[in-house]
Write a structure and sequence with these properties.
alpha+beta; 7-stranded mixed sheet; Lambda Exonuclease, Chain A; YqaJ_viral_recombinase; globular
């Protein structure tokens, strides 16, 4: 089972290797309980893109068989081993800080790229359900990100800094409800404005690593996060690096102020029209069933601007540059 899930994990400590083995043993129990297609979510096949009519389930979105209506918003992959410290990100263990902010990694969900995720995120911010803290895909990414980073540095020669959890709003404190935690900051690249953001993706397709190849284009659901990271970190460009055991691809994305303005407006509606009013009511009253008792301020499955943001995301993805794509060490042109 380990070979099936993580065939190319090497040079790990004995302790972490045992944990990886245990994760592998979980797959048989967990994968049949999923209602999403991780291939659609994590690996765009043959350059396929998501359009406004092709919304997919989020990795943290699950559906329980229990009768409670809240169970469908709670993660299924909650085995204790998934919360083991050695499987968490070596730098970005900022779960407590994230609870009280809307972070870049949740932007696509907050506007409705995955309809059920929007309500789930709302419940998380109210404290009605536990926030999404990881699954097999995120554990895989945490384990392999260091290897991916070293490959990126080898390919580009760039040096990387690792910033702390960044809160937006240095110039406008009223925007401090937004935050981000990038994978790294690129110091300098010849011919580009000083400093960029690094975002690393390590796709996971139910452990079928032999079927995982570097992306040919950036999935649309990654664009809100990418633009949010650049805005919050105040950087003009991003290196978006995709690593797989079979190769990697490097894209360059540029900051788009018009895109951010539309995105921020939708995020603001989610936060100030749904999250904050609900939190205020909860602070003054005993709320036992927010889905029913707070129905009037429960968010719709999609923001009214979601379709437009999806279309604009396609334009951003189309305008990004695929700088490098390699498979098994060979450059693909």
């Amino acid at each position: 089972m380990l070979a099936y899930c993580f065939p190319l994990i090497i040079q790990l400590s004995n302790y972490k290797s045992r944990i990886i083995h245990n994760i592998g043993l979980l797959v048989g129990n967990l994968k049949y309980r999923r209602t999403y297609s991780s291939q659609n979510l994590l690996e765009p096949v043959s350059g396929r893109i998501i359009t406004s009519s092709q919304f997919v389930n989020h990795p943290s979105q699950r559906s329980f068989s229990q009768s409670s209506c809240y169970q469908k918003f709670a993660p299924v992959e909650n085995h204790p081993i998934l919360r083991c410290s050695s499987l968490q990100h070596r730098f970005k263990n900022w779960q407590e800080l994230r609870k009280h902010k809307l972070t870049a990694s949740t932007f696509a969900g907050a506007i409705g790229f995955w309809p059920l995720r929007r309500t789930q995120l709302w419940l998380e911010k109210l404290g009605a359900i536990e926030p999404f803290s990881g699954n097999l895909a995120t554990c895989w990414s945490n384990i392999k990100e260091e290897e991916a980073l070293e490959r990126y540095k080898l390919i580009t020669g760039n040096t990387i800094e690792f910033p702390e959890f960044q809160v937006y709003g240095k110039m406008n404190p009223e925007d401090s409800w937004l935050a981000a935690s990038p994978d790294g900051l690129v110091n300098s690249v010849y011919g580009l404005p000083p400093g960029g953001v690094l975002e690393i993706k390590c796709p996971y397709i139910d452990g079928k690593m032999e079927e995982t190849f570097p992306w040919k284009r950036i999935p649309l659901y990654c664009i809100p996060q990418a633009q949010g990271l650049m805005e919050i970190m105040d950087r003009e460009w991003m290196d978006f690096y995709v690593w797989t055991p079979n190769g990697s691809s490097l894209f360059r994305i540029y900051r788009d102020v018009k895109y951010w303005n539309v995105l921020k407006s939708a995020l603001s509606d989610f936060w100030w029209k749904h999250v904050q009013p609900a939190k205020e009511i909860c602070s003054k009253n005993v709320i036992t069933d927010p889905l029913r008792e707070l129905k009037s301020i429960r968010p719709d499955s999609r923001h009214e601007s979601c379709g437009d943001i999806v279309r604009q995301s396609k334009l951003v993805a189309d305008n990004s540059n695929l700088l490098i794509r390699e498979i098994n060490g060979q450059l693909i042109t």
